Amino acid sequence: MVRSGNAAAATMLRAMRSFLGDNDMMAYLAMMAVRLLELHRVLKPTGSLYLHCDPTASHYLKILLDAVFGAQRFVNEIAWKRSSAHNDGAQGAKHFGRITDIVLFYSKTDQRTWNPVYTEYSQEYIDRDYRRVEPDGRRYRLDNIQGPGGAANGNPYYEVMGVSRYWRYSKERMERMINEGLIVQTSPGAVPQMKRYLDAGKGIPAQDMWTDIQLNNRAKEKLGYPTQKPVALLERILNASSNPGDVVLDPFCGCGTTVHAAQKLGRSWIGIDVTHLAVGLIEKRLRDAFEGVQFTTHGVPQDLEGARNMAARGRDDKNYYFEFEKWALSLINAQPGNLSKKGADKGIDGNLYFGAKHEGRAIVSVKAGENIGVSMIRDLGHVIAREGAQIGVFLTLTEPTRPMITEAAGAGQYEVPGLAGAVPRIQIVTIEQAMALRDRAVRLPALRQDSFRRAAKEEDSGRQKAMDL
Question: What pTM did the predictor assign?
């Protein structure tokens, strides 16, 4: 099955290249083909795949998924309205506002796990159909109880409240519902009807147009990650296509919304991402949201020796060194100063912000080399002064020298007006300390994560179980 999918995907890529050429989209599709084949391979027969993408790529990816899974395994193309407005459709734009993304839903076999999910009734529907209200405030509507098709469909014929008809229910059940006050007659001689209460309904079965889940810039769960998805979006997907205890895999983990939803819903999970920025954010998010959560992060240093090995690899590969920087910054919850690392960083590897009005800034300088000295502490002091920042953090893999410690102490203390206590203006923090203490290794008044905010506490319905990896 994988072989045939492999061959079909290769044939489809060749066909796409014939009209796309060798461009960024073609490179992206080739990259996705390899990953989709592997995802198909590891997916259980009862499993499903949901692929989120934007409309510029969805049509290509659907063809690719048809090749990998088989066209008969296509289930839905879900249009998700991610926001209510978008500035690219504002006045002067030459296109309609782009406010939807696509979620492609495929299954491995026709034995996929499926649990129906429901959306809430609209207020318009409630006001129109559930106009009747009991003395206790319960809303209800009246529903037809006549048996469609009469005797041909096996519906019984008898008299109810002076009216003889074919009915949906047996005479015994009808009598029980009458005794329970569920059957009413609006006027003498009228056909009896049944009360259906609003609070007894499940809602409307979810369709393939999702307009009720959004994540705006003011949302409490917003962490500041550019491609963050709402937890509710992933909860809907996981509730529909998995059960508690099932394993959820997100191979493009980003800021960890999928693993957050999986942890919340009692699923086991595996999240994968290639950047240490994302991995650090996911670790922080889980610890903030779930008290006592336990998980293992593979591919990042677990001890000081691992950190040294990572730094050594970075000396030969600049891109890998930038990943070391991002990992080191994630230990203290600092935001990288230059995510793309295009151009000079001007001595700013990362930032931390603090203060009631976000007025405080701490500049972080990361050093992975063995040759560190007092001049680096002076340089950090110059950067603080140039940027108008209040605090500097020298995050070092190598233990600082005594002159460095003396120089840092000579920079004095910083105190926020109105708050008790003062903190060192320049602080030297070793990677070893940061690995042990995380953000507590840095002393900041009224610490505030500016770009990556703290995830709200969740009730942990199921802890991550140990997995045999």
Answer: 0.78
